[in-house]
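Example record used in the benchmark description.
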Amino acid sequence: MRVLLLGGTREARALAELLVDDGDDVTTSLAGRVARPRLPVGDVRVGGFGGVEGLAAHLREHVVDVVVDATHPFAERISANAAAACPQAGVPLLRLERPGWSVRPDAGTWHWVDDHDEAAQVAAELGERPFLTVGRQSLARFVEPLRDHGCVVRVVDPPEIELPSAWTLVQSRGPYTRDHERDAMRGTDVLVTKDSGGEHTEAKLDVAAELGVPVVVVRRAGAPAGVSVVTDASAARAWVRAQPGR
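Model output (structure tokens):
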């Protein structure tokens, strides 16, 4: 099978390994937004496709059999593009998305919001020193509502915007332990995150519950309508094996 894997997550890397072991021709596409990405096995391409039409043309040109969208739960644009392009090219599409954190016992105590603008407003009301773990691409939405707050901002790569002078920037990459998160959250009074799911960055939620720190969580948009979804690499592999190919 010739598989295009829209990647950038650990689930994508796990699936690439499984499919390469099966003998499939796997190309993982990365957006190129992380300076030092963890690379999967198989072939890798970096950069966009040029929207829906560009992706559909790529699928035809490279005679792709199946597409698995295993991008981050908040990579909504590429997921929407894949949902539109794959039917145009006649290519089956699967969404591989890790489960969110809404099933946690303490999730009912969190402040759930629909977008980053609402998250910024709620955080401004809840605390004076928010701990922002929303990724660098969303930081601009927090600047004005939280300009005078003593925010601690954790990102993997440097932000592309100038941060307010009252903010503290921390660059690091998970996974994180509870001990690490206790140190990271020392002095902060509200945790702001998004429902990314997974275990690598979940410890901050455990520590927030332990310390009684309020949590603001941005909801997922969910997979595009009509796209089948699985939650682990083994299930995605089984789906690929069940496709007829070309």
